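Exercise: predict the fold of this chain.
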Amino acid sequence: MGHARRRRRCRRLRGAAAACRDCRGRFQARARRAAMMVHEFGLLRRILKERSGLNLGEDKQEMLEGKLRPLLKEFELPSLSHLALALMKPDSHVLRTRVAQAVTVQESYFFRDKAPFNYFIDVMLPKLMAKREVSRRIRVWCAAA
């Protein structure tokens, strides 16, 4: 079978060891899309638990991959496997912090939606203050903490 039937995109190289720029780009894109290994996902879950208290279920691997992919470019890492390896280094404090930030929501819904906050200030807080007029002590518990 001749070269014409092989449908190569890079005919100009014909057997050369080096790939052309287009093929190299497709290979790198494919590597970036490759899913992380089970042990890498476990490592990332452990780091997130330690750094942010976030306990990811085993069904959250795709979600985690999607949130971490932008960090590959930021830290010039070729794949999620390399990200997991970089996180194991002792001097990876900045990377660990960025991973935790990428996965967690940085703002509480309590403050995003003004209505509950305004209701608390305008209605609930005055009632609580009236009940605690003598001690003037109020304890507030937040379910998100």
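Check your answer against the key: The chain has a mean pLDDT of 77.
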